[in-house]
Amino acid sequence: VVYKIVRMSAAACQSLQAQGFTLKAYMKNSKVVGPPSAGAFAERPAKPTAFRKFYERGDFPIALEHDTKGNRIAWKVEIEKLDYHHYLPLFFDGLCETVHPYEFFARQGVHDMLEHGGSKILPVIPQLIIPIKNALNTRKRPVICTTLKVLQHLVVSGEMVGEALVPYYRQILPILNIFKNSNRNSGDGIDYSQQKRENIGDLIQETLEAFERHGGEDAFINIKYMVPTYESCMLN
Amino acid sequence: MTSVATKSYDHLGLGDGPKPKSMVRAKRWSEEVENAFRFQTAGYRDEIEYKIIMKIEPERWPVEPGYVKKLQRRDGTYYYYNRGRECQDKEVHKIKLYQY
Predict the structure, then answer these.
(1) How many structural domains comprise chain A?
(2) What's the longest Cα–Cα distance across chain B?
(3) Does this model's pTM top 0.80?
(4) Under 8 Å between Cβ of A122 and A82
(5) Residue A43 located in a structural domain
(6) Using the beta-carbon criterion (under 8 Å), do B41 and A69 form an inter-chain contact?
(7) Residue A215 sits in which domain range?
(8) What is the DSSP letter of B28?
(9) I want to staple B74 with a disulfide (CB 3.0 to 4.6 A). Which of A177, A231, B5, B64 is the partner?
């Protein structure tokens, strides 16, 4: 019986794996493994959105259309008459959605409201930051993609909107910094995401350049603070 | 919301408005085709029919070339359009251009 125990412990010693800087790591037969992945790029589950709740309750002034031209929203009320303080943050909240029809209506609703909002957008900017941050923090590729395109639209949607976003770079830009270099090295193969405008690295570069162009004179230094590898598109 | 489609316009003395004499399908994109695309997406033949039915001028973008911006549909809902081109090449052949 004693002989058996000795053999088993010898086998266990051979496969002993230990985390670095632990007592186990000092043992002769232990093998130190590398640190675990921090999960910086891992997708994070999104909480149920208020957009979905409001949509299912029928609170939005939009009409559902089941036809082949499903790329437009029929508004029951003129957009000019909408309360932007109420509706725009709600539509932005829906950017976290990935399933139809929520994803489509959130994306298209944001697009229409930004395109036709003009001066009504600027006062709502502070309320948009948390939904934008939540959407980027999900770290889901399609969600980041949509949010980046929305950000590019947002900075050109009205006067002074780009400047108004500068104080909120600390909330928005960390995720852009994480994914800035996410370009696939496909050798000489074709990366189809480039044609479809879904390449996250390229979209982030475009977005940061749009921020710099429309963010006024303080924009570059603030971007550089959050995304150190960013180089100015205007100074160089 | 009232349905405009069921209304009669005989009292206007227009009947159903001028009838188009002929129709051709667009071969390539142009500004005229772009506007026709916008009216036809909203469910109207063209600008003439829109004016007769809705009795209002369609709202246009103030920036050049001034495409149609907003259209009210027959069911009372609104369609909004971008300031730039929306009609893609793959949709151009579906657009009908009417002549009077």
Answers:
(1) 1
(2) 41
(3) yes
(4) no
(5) no
(6) yes
(7) 50-181+196-226
(8) S
(9) B5
Residues 6+ positions from A207 with CB-CB distance below 8 Å: A148, A151, A152, A176
Average pLDDT of chain A is 86
In a domain, A155, yes or no: yes
CB B31 within 8 A of CB B67: yes
Nearest CA in chain A to B69: A116
Q: How many CA atoms lie within 13 A of B43 on its CB side?
A: 15
Taking only the tens place, the pLDDT of each residue in A116-162 is 888 899 999 999 999 999 999 999 999 999 999 999 999 999 899 99
- Residue pair A207/A175 in contact (Cβ under 8 Å)? The answer is no
State residue A29 phi and psi, 5-degree precision.
-90, 5
Q: Which two tokens stand for residue A203?
A: 């979209």
Per-residue pLDDT for A20 more than 50? yes
Cβ-proximal residues to A30 (8 Å cutoff; 6+ apart), any chain? A16, A17, A18, A24
Smallest CA–CA distance, residue B45 to chain A, in Å, is: 17
Tokens representing A169?
């770079």
Q: Which residues of B touch A63 (CB under 8 A)?
A: 75, 77
List, as one string, the DSSP characters of A97-112. Answer: --STTHHHHHHHHHHH
**Alpha carbons within 13 A on the beta-carbon side of A202:** 10
- Give Cα separations from A188 to A185, B21, B55 (angstroms): 9, 56, 59
Q: Residue A66 is part of a domain; what is its CATH number?
A: 1.25.10.10
Residue B78 corresponds to which amino acid? Y
